[in-house]
User: What shape does this take?
Amino acid sequence: MPSGSRPVLSHVVWDWNGTLFDDFDLTARIAGRTMAALGVPGITGADIRREFRRPFSDFYASLVGRPVSADEFVFIRQRYEQEYEAQVLDLGLQPDAIEAMDRLARVATQSLLSMAPDAQLQQLVDHHGIRDRFVCVEGSPRSDSDGNKAGRLEQHLAVIGADPAATVIIGDTVDDHEAAFHNGARSVLVTTGSTSRTQLEATGAPVVDTLRGAVELALED
Assistant: This one.
């Protein structure tokens, strides 16, 4: 391999929520109703994308405009989980998700690493009939989704034996880029999820509007 060149792509790690799975509109509606219940009506999807961050306590504080109490945070999380679980099976994949995964399958293996609860993720992957596309499907053991994705990605790549330098992470958050950077992998970010284009572009990673576009960038030498 010539000096300074990177290995040919051999593996892609997909994010789930907002990336392969088209759930942003639902999460935005739930967040809007919940913020209204806390006295802050009129929260929009654009507001959510602009303010999104982890830990989630900071994210909700930015939407409310003040720190949220422990009781309020419990209320927010419980309401979100109840409403999301009640509707999640009605949601679909992104319109170009199957096409994107099929395109990658010709040249690379694929896996799924999500901060979503593992039991929920496993159910949804089976519900949509896509398990055989992945060498590994891994959700979060934590229910609050505030874990360290960089550390989890490191373990994920080690378990499946993927070379980070030959791996691309496709996701919709700044965390996805930071996890890739920490592990020596590339990232491609999509605007289909919870984070604004402005925040995504500030990472320096390539940013696109579709999974089809993300795959084309991932395949570039």
